[in-house]
Amino acid sequence: MKDGSDGTATDAIEIVGLDKVYGQGAGAFRALTGIDLTIRSGEFFTLLGPSGCGKTTLLRVIAGFENPTEGSVRISGEEVAHLGPNKRQVNTVFQNYALFPHMTVAQNIGFGLRMLGRSRTEVAATTAEMLRLVRMEELAQRRPAELSGGQQQRVALARALAPHPRVLLLDEPLSALDLKLRKEMQGELKRLQAETGITFVFVTHDQEEALTMSDRIAVMSAGRILQRGTPHEIYHAPTERFVADFIGDTNFLTVPVVSVEAGAAQVELPGGRTAPARLPEGARPAPGAKVTVVIRPEQARLVPPGEGEMQGEVTSSVFFGTDTHVHARLTDGQDFVLRRQNAGELADPSPGDRIGLALGDGVLRVLKD
Amino acid sequence: MARRSFEVRRIPGFGAIAILTIVLLYVPILILVTFSFNAGRSQAEWEGFSLQWYRAAFANEQVQDVSIRSLWLAIAAAGIATVLATLAALGTTRVGRFRGQTLIYALVNQPLMVPEVVTGIALLIFVASIKVATGYMGMGYLVAAHTAFCIPFAYLPIRARLETLDLNLERAAADLYASPVQAFRHITLPLLVPGIAAGFMLGFVISLDTVVITEFVKSAGQDTLPTYMLGQLRRAVTPEMNAIASLFLALSLVVVTAFFLVSRRRGA
């Protein structure tokens, strides 16, 4: 399989050839195109992308709020594309929480179990357990309107976890919280996932949130999945320009290919030095062809002029405390940003200074066209 | 120079028009209520405080008769209209867009737009032909006519309430294993209660108050309070009518106040 899964029935979610089209004819809108995705059991999986990329639509298709136009959706091996949301063992944490305003916190949490026809004692016991899990025991008899945003968030989590679903879907659940609370809830979510062992599918547009929380990430744009992998793979080995640009800061350099070996190419850097650059899977550019390589700002070091792989002239320096961003123009006129850690009290380079840029071993990546 | 936004209070004559409007609206009512407590028969001369006209009204069997008929007619018509209006509101907000949606909206609200006299005459002819065909002369005609007239008044607050309900609440219920019927019973309906109560009360007041349609549709001996009062006033104007009207006003005020309180309640 594309994402390296063995595709057995133990996978939490398996999506094949999924399309979602709204409307018909000329006014039709393709929200999702050719989605193939396998999410393993117990994984913290993140759908990452800008607003309008289709990540929420994909989540709603998994939940059953939207029917796929084409393709299949399996949950724990069972085909569910034709089933309503009440027939799927997945629960959702909504962006606006969607707590039932006329019920108490405890009634909200017990709702799913009551609908499943569980006994009174089981509902009461699980509700109490969930209240403990999200540390809301004291507020069990409150109404949602009497809770703060963070507390509502916890109730929404407890309500969705109470029926012990196979998969928990989270639709940008932290976006309504302020920064401090968001950090706190990020840790809380990781803890809950570890304690319950439930597969989490998390939707966010916040790349930092995705990097810090996920086991694996799928980066989406314009209704397609562009790349999937661990946070390390996504950050260090982006295969598409969009992915490299969306996650972290990146330098893009257009360089000619000198020669091609298995999986790597020698490229000619600005200034004439050659360096190896890893090729994306299946790519074999011809020698002489221009390709785009990416280098993260922290992967280049500031060295005295004449040393290093590339030479440049400083155009500006921006001091951030822990590091300084040095903007430079390379010898062939391309721009480059370098991030220098301020380990000691170092002087920032001034505009007009000539500098050398040293690249770490194997940091260059060639992007897909 | 500060550019000021348009403000209606700065239009010349605003104060005068406002006062005139309030006087025309409320002074007649005030006079009516005042003279219902008059000791004499005059509608223009105050002769001292008395409750005699209220006593007379309560002792009048005909008044009791028509009042009870009015009340149960209003309850029946508003009740049926509320059920139908709830279904109509659900049918026009909880489904995808469909052809003829606007037409249905217009049809539901037709009684608000067609002059009452036209509806009255149309009903008169329609009802007469049914009476001839079936021989049935009961209250069914009035109940049906009032129900039709009450539907839009019940429909509007219910629809307004449904439109402000977060659709995610129903999705969350479905996500938590509620069948469509369970989701409606446990989530939509309880949250809709303020709208339904408001719709019922509005329909109740409208039915209680309707003269024209009742006048055209009623058979002999089916007078409601307003048509009875109209009939009495043709013969003689007595302060007894003032007393009845004042009581009528008090009842309407109670219901309208309840409507206001209920429709103001949000979310709870």
UniProtKB/TrEMBL annotation, chain A:
GO cellular component: ATP-binding cassette (ABC) transporter complex
GO MF entries: ABC-type polyamine transporter activity; ATP binding; ATP hydrolysis activity
Domain of life: Bacteria
Pfam families (UniProt xref): ABC_tran (PF00005), TOBE_2 (PF08402)
Enzyme Commission number, as recorded: 7.6.2.11
Reaction(s) catalysed (UniProt annotation): ATP + H2O + polyamine-[polyamine-binding protein]Side 1 = ADP + phosphate + polyamineSide 2 + [polyamine-binding protein]Side 1
SUPFAM superfamilies assigned: MOP-like, P-loop containing nucleoside triphosphate hydrolases
Listed InterPro entries: AAA+_ATPase, ABC_SmlMolc_Importer, ABC_transporter-like_ATP-bd, ABC_transporter-like_CS, Mo/tungstate-bd_C_term_dom, NA-bd_OB-fold, P-loop_NTPase, PotA-like
SMART domains, alphabetized: AAA
Enzyme class: translocase
Alphabetical UniProt keywords: ATP-binding, Cell membrane, Membrane, Nucleotide-binding, Translocase, Transport
Function: Part of the ABC transporter complex PotABCD involved in spermidine/putrescine import. Responsible for energy coupling to the transport system.
Subunit structure: The complex is composed of two ATP-binding proteins (PotA), two transmembrane proteins (PotB and PotC) and a solute-binding protein (PotD).
Name this polypeptide is given: Spermidine/putrescine import ATP-binding protein PotA
Organism: Wenxinia marina DSM 24838
Source taxonomy: Bacteria, Pseudomonadati, Pseudomonadota, Alphaproteobacteria, Rhodobacterales
Gene symbol of the encoding locus: potA
From TrEMBL, chain B:
Membrane topology term: Multi-pass membrane protein
Membrane-traversing stretches: 12-37, 71-91, 103-130, 136-156, 187-208, 243-262
Presence of the UniProt keyword Protein transport in the record: no
Gene3D superfamilies: MetI-like
Domain ABC transmembrane type-1: 67-262
GO biological process: transmembrane transport
Entry's localization field: Cell inner membrane; Cell membrane
Pfam family name, one: BPD_transp_1
GO cellular component terms, semicolon-separated: plasma membrane
PROSITE patterns in the record: ABC_TM1 (PS50928)
Its biological purpose: Required for the activity of the bacterial periplasmic transport system of putrescine and spermidine.
Assigned protein family: Belongs to the binding-protein-dependent transport system permease family. CysTW subfamily.
Identification of the protein by name: Spermidine/putrescine transport system permease protein PotC
Originating organism: Wenxinia marina DSM 24838
